Amino acid sequence: MNSSKHTELANHAWSVADLLRGDYKQSDYGKVILPFIVLRRLECVLEPTRDAVAAEVVRCKEQELDPDYFLPRASGHSFYNTSSLTLKSIVGDAGNAAANLQVYVGAFSPNAREVLEKYEFAQQIRKLDSANLLYQVIGKFTDLDLRPEVVSNHNMGYIFEELIRRFSEQSNETAGEHFTPREVIKLMVSLLIAPDGDALSLPGVVRTVLDPACGTGGMLSAAEEHIKSYNRDATVEVYGQELNPESWAICRSDLMIKGQDPENIAFGNSFSDDGHAREKFDYLLANPPFGVEWKKVKDDVEYEHTNLGDSGRFGAGLPRINDGSLLFLQHMISKMKPVDVKGGGGSRIAIVFNGSPLFTGAAGSGESEIRRWILENDWLEAIVALPDQLFYNTGISTYFWILTNRKDAQHKGKVVLLDARDQWVKMRKSLGDKRKELGDGTGNKPNHIGDITRLYAEAVSAASDPKHALHAKVKVFDNTAFGYQRITVERPLKLRFELTEETLAALLASKPVQKWAEERFLPREPELAAKAKARRKLTEDEEAQFRKLADAEVTVLGDALKPLLGSEWTTKSEAQVAVRDAMAKAGVPGPTGAPFAKAFRDAVGVRDAEGEVQLLKGGEMEPDSELRDYENVPLGEDVEEYLKREVHPHVPDAWIDHAKTKVGYEIPFTRHFYLYEPPRPLAEIDAELKAIETEIQALLGEVTE
C-alpha cells in the first residue's frame, strides 16, 4: 500500500472530527476516533472466522469447555468476539444503536475489552448517543475497509500512528506528555541499533525491545520498523509499560492491529509494579517525563533500595524526589541481558534526558552515585546533545544517553560526547514548544539523521583526527575523566578574647550559666527543687518564681564580671584566669567545668586572623567552620599535591580533612564544547548604535511631516 492510500484511510477516519465539532473539544477527538478504528479493525480481522467462533461457542456451552482456551484457537487470533452483531447491523437499527453497541463490545474477549475500557468507550457511547451522533459515527466506520488482505498489519500500524500524530498535534496538553516527535525517535533508534546492523541481517534473527515509559508506542513501532529494514524476516517482539490509561490503550491497540501480542504492554507504574519483572531484553529505549517527582512510589522504591540493594534495581542510589529520570535508567539497566564468556548476549539502551542528570547532585548524592555506578561499570557509550525546541512540551535542550554492556574494543573504557545542537531546520509552523526539527533528507531538508548517525559510527576516529571535517563536534574521554574527589579544606580557628556588653550577655544566657544559677538557688527552695527533680510541670506562678530566682543568681555573676568590661586578651588561658580572679574577688563561686569553658570561649572569643590558634583535646588544630571550603580534584590526582599547588600559596595553614573526602561523578557536557567568543570592538558597537539612532530619527521625521 502506498503512502497516498495510508493518507486516504487516515483522512476518512479523521473526517469523523467534522461530526464531533461543537460537542467535543479538539483534544478529545481521539477518544472517539481511536477506539472506533480499533473496533473496526478487530471486526475486519475476525470476519473470516465468525462462523467458526459461533460454532465453538455452542460446543463450549454444550460440553462445558473453557471458552478462553478454545475460542482464540477458533478465531485464529489472541482475541475473539462471540456476538452475532456487526457495526453494519448496529447502524441499521439506529434507535437501539447504543444498547446494541454495548452488547457487541461486551462480547469481545477480555484482552480486547480491556483496551476499549481504558478508552472509557462506554462513556463515549453514552455521550455520542445523547448528542444524536452515535449512529452517524458508526456509519462512518462501517465504510472503512480494513480487512488484512486490503490493509496489512504493517500498513495498519502506519494509519494508526498517523492518527495518533494528528491528535497529539491538536493538543499541546497531551503532545509532550505522551508523544515524541517522529524524527527524534528515528534518530534515537538509529543510534541504538545501527552498530548491530550486520548481526540483524542474519537469517532467523529474533530481537526483543522494551520501552518502560512507552506512551502510545511510537518508539516501539520505530524500533521494530528499523530492525526490519535490515532484515524483513526478522522476528521483533516489542514490550512496554505505561501508566496513563489512554496511552496504554492506544499502544495496546497498536499491537493488536499489527498482529503483535498485546499482553506485552503492561499497565501500571514501572517502579512500584514492574510489568516485566525478571525479564531481559536486547534493546531498551525510553523518553521518560522530565523532572517528574516520584513521591507516589517513594515507599516502594526506598524499600527496594534499602532491602534489596544491588540485587534490586535501585541499589546504586536514589535521585532527589522531584526528578525520577535516573530511576528509569536504573530500571532499564536491570533488564540488560548478561554478556556470555564468548562476548555474545548483552543489550543496548537509549534514553532521552534533559541536562539535569548530567551534573545534578554533589559528590555522595544519589545522582552522583548513580553516575559513578554507570561509569565504573563501563556502560555509558555516548551522550548526544540535541537542538533545543525539538519537543512539543518543552523548549529546553535534551540529550540522548546511549548505554551498553557489550562495548566494542575501541569504546571500552571510553565515553563519546557528540554535539548535534546545530543539526536542525526551522519548522514552517510551530507545534507547542516545538519550533525545530531534524531533517531526514526528504522534502528538500538536510539529512541530519543520517549525518549524526554516520558521525556517531566514526566518533572515535573523528575525535582523534584534527583534520576530520567534524572533529570539533565530537570528543572522547576516559570514564575516569568525569570523576572527581570532593575534598574538604580546613583552616584553623583563630580567636582573640574580649568582654563587652554583648559578649557578657551571651555568656550569661548560655546553658552552663543557667544551670549553675539553678544549682545555686534550688537548695534554698525544696518544693521547687522537688518538682524540678521529678520533672513535674510548674504552675505559672512557680515558673515566674523559678525564673526570678535564677535571674538573681545570674545577676550576681554578671556584677562580678562587670569590672572586666572593655578588657581584651590574646589567649584563652589569659581570659580564663582574669575571669576566675574577678569571680574570686567578688566572692562568687562561679561555674566551672568543660561545658562552661566551651560556652565561655564561644561567647567571649572573637575571630581574628592574628588570634590564638584553638586546639582540640588531642592537640590537633580546631577547624573554623566559617572558613571551611571545598575543592573538586580530578580523580587519580594526589590531593596533597593539589593542596600544595593550588591552596597553600594563598592560605599556607590549610589542611585536608581526609575523613570527609567523597568521590563524585558529573558530565559537564557544555563545558567541553564551549568556545570563547571575544566581544565586538567598541568602535563597531558605537557605529551600529549611531546608525540605529539615525534610522530612528529618519522614521520620526516621516511621522511628524
End-to-end Cα distance, whole Å, is 66 Å
Major sheet attributes: 9 strands, mixed
**Uncertain residue segments:** 173-178
Q: Total number of β-strand segments? A: 19
Any overview of this molecule?
The protein is built from 31 helices and 19 strands. The protein is α/β, with parallel strands linked by helices. The chain is elongated and about 115 Å long.
Describe the structure concisely for a colleague:
By secondary structure, the chain is of the alpha/beta class.
Task: Kindly list the characteristics that best describe this protein.
19 strands, EC 2.1.1.72, nine-stranded mixed sheet, 705 residues, SAM-dependent_MTases_sf, 13% strand, alpha/beta, four-stranded antiparallel sheet, 31 helices
Ordered list of secondary-structure elements with their pairings:
Blueprint: H1 3-14, H2 16-20, H3 30-46, H4 50-63, H5 67-75, H6 87-91, H7 97-106, H8 110-118, H9 121-130, H10 134-142, H11 153-170, H12 172-178, H13 182-193, H14 197-200, E1 206-211, H15 218-230, E2 235-242, H16 245-258, E3 265-267, E4 283-286, H17 298-308, H18 325-333, E5 348-354, H19 356-359, H20 366-376, E6 380-385, E7 398-404, E8 414-419, E9 425-431, E10 434-437, H21 448-457, H22 459-464, E11 474-478, E12 483-490, E13 494-498, H23 501-508, H24 511-521, H25 526-533, H26 540-561, E14 568-569, H27 572-585, H28 594-604, E15 605-607, E16 612-613, E17 629-634, H29 639-647, E18 655-656, E19 662-665, H30 669-672, H31 682-704
Helix pairs in contact: 1-11, 3-16, 4-5, 7-9, 8-16, 11-12, 11-16, 13-15, 13-21, 23-28, 24-26
Protein name: site-specific DNA-methyltransferase (adenine-specific)
GO molecular function, one term: methyltransferase activity
Domain DNA methylase adenine-specific: 153-429
